[in-house]
Amino acid sequence: MAEDAAGRQFESPAPASVRAQLLATEHWGLLAARSTAQNEVLARIGIFLTLVSAGLVSLALVGQATDFSEAFVAFAVGVLAFIVLVGVLTQLRVMNIGMEDLMYVVAMNRLRGAYVELDPGLDRVLMSSPHDDFAGIQQTYYFFTPKRGISQVLGSTMAFIILINSSLLGLFIAATAVVFTSLVALAAVLGAAGAVLYFGLFYWGGNRTFRAALAAYHPEFPSPE
Question: pTM (2 decimals)?
């Protein structure tokens, strides 16, 4: 199917100038939608981090007021449960926006492929790729590296939000364990294990979703062999 798509030309009765204007209009629409989505998720992350800061400050104040008694532990469990819930919802939105951003990159790569069909000499001045397959996506995301490296993976917004949520979940598990067992060492072990498990599970799940989406997609302008 990829070979058929590569050989099929962008045919239209409209002049090339009109086709270029139509493609540019779609391109600007995608850019605007991508910018809106990114701004929205950044605002969501900002609200979540503000909530985390407020929650931790409230725990410190209540802890001092109650001398870290059993009432404080119960309060901490409630606050952490709420923050973890908001964090999971924020994380889901971040991951959804990540897939949406992938869609925008693929769509704009496809438009560049159509531009190159209109003007074959254009590809030599494009930094972003005119190919809408995985290799083209990597070129658009990472101009100066041949493929996604560990720094891009660990520095991604998805890894950032999963790390914060795993830490908060670990604190929640530890606080809950203290309520039922009063064993601080056991609570610390359970909290650490829960945090590591959460991070690994959701990081693997996010990567799996990304690769499944690419596997199901058939590019219109595949990269040359």
Answer: 0.83
Residue with tokens 């996604």: 148
CA distances from 108 to 31, 115, 137, 209 (A): 8, 10, 10, 21
**76 neighbors 55 (Cβ within 8 angstroms):** no
Chain segment 111-145, per-residue pLDDT in tens: 999 999 998 888 888 889 999 998 899 888 887 77
Helix-, strand-, coil-residue percentages of the chain, each rounded to 5: 80, 0, 20
C-alpha–C-alpha distance, residues 221 and 4, integer Å:
10
Q: What is the pLDDT of residues 163-203, one digit of tens each?
A: 999 999 999 999 999 888 878 899 999 999 999 999 999 99
Task: Answer for the pair 116, 136: CB distance below 8 angstroms, yes or no.
Answer: no
Q: What is the pLDDT of residue 6?
A: 46
48 with 105: CB under 8 angstroms? no
Amino acid identity for residue 73 in this structure: V
Q: Exposed, middle or buried: residue 121 (CB in 10 Å: 0-12, 13-18, 19+)?
A: exposed
CA distance 132 to 6: 11
Quote the CA–CA distance of 15 and 170 in Å, as a whole number.
Answer: 61
**DSSP letter string over 162-201?**
HHHHHHHHHHHHHHHHHHHH--HHHHHHHHHHHHHHHHHH
